[in-house]
Amino acid sequence: MAQLELVGHSRISEETLEQVRSGALDGWSAQRVLEWGLDQFAPRISLSASFGSPEGLVLVDLMHRIDPDRTRVFTIDTGRLPQETYDLMDRVRDRYRIEVGVYFPQPERVQAMVRERGLNLFYESVENRRLCCGVRKVEPLKRALADLDAWIAGLRREQSVTRSEVRAVEIDQVHDDRIKLNPLARWTREDVWSYVKKHNVPVNALHAKGYPSVGCAPCSRATADGEDERAGRWWWEQAESRECGIHDGYEDQGSGI
Ligand code: SF4
Known about the structure:
Rossmann fold; alpha/beta; disordered C terminus; 8 helices; binds iron/sulfur cluster; globular; 6-stranded mixed beta sheet
């Protein structure tokens, strides 16, 4: 945790915090929220994109239109991503000519976890699944956020029961009170896909094969018509537990791993 304490929240003015707390930004357009975020925090603000859902790519495109030089993007390579996701990362780098900062899990922790619980531990219990997400996603995310005052995510309220209260700009208590921007909070799925089509935004090839949301290969599947759009993520669990810890706050759980 020492790394995070270096952030220094005095960087974020009380005026900015008040603006966020007031909820005044919640009615703003996605573009206006992004412009505000870049003006307030650049270069200490970055988009977190999984390259597994169109929302992150819409945000790359929006940010790039606002200011290519301040478009900063990071992602987490868990080591279990499908090839289509890696292909998309390269396409985005080529098209927008931006660097994608890739963060990896700590090899010693992955090795110890797999030795103790197996390669496919996540199917055995929610505890195991959260441990794996903790080691492969949550811990690298902490390192990715270490030099940031604010981060941007593609969460939308209608995506699932776990996201119905998402605000356009919030104080992220899970990550040491950084500012978190969810510029697409009020967008519908139709809004996202209409933007993708209009601007020819590159997206994950697995969407065309019935995956509305793509995460790690063993934990994602195609969905049927009428299913919740995150129903293909950790489909063997109850809907209420289907978050990886990046947005809902449980810690990477220990047991010395
Ligand atoms: S999504 Fe699955 S494979 Fe990926 S980190 Fe979480 S449990 Fe592990």
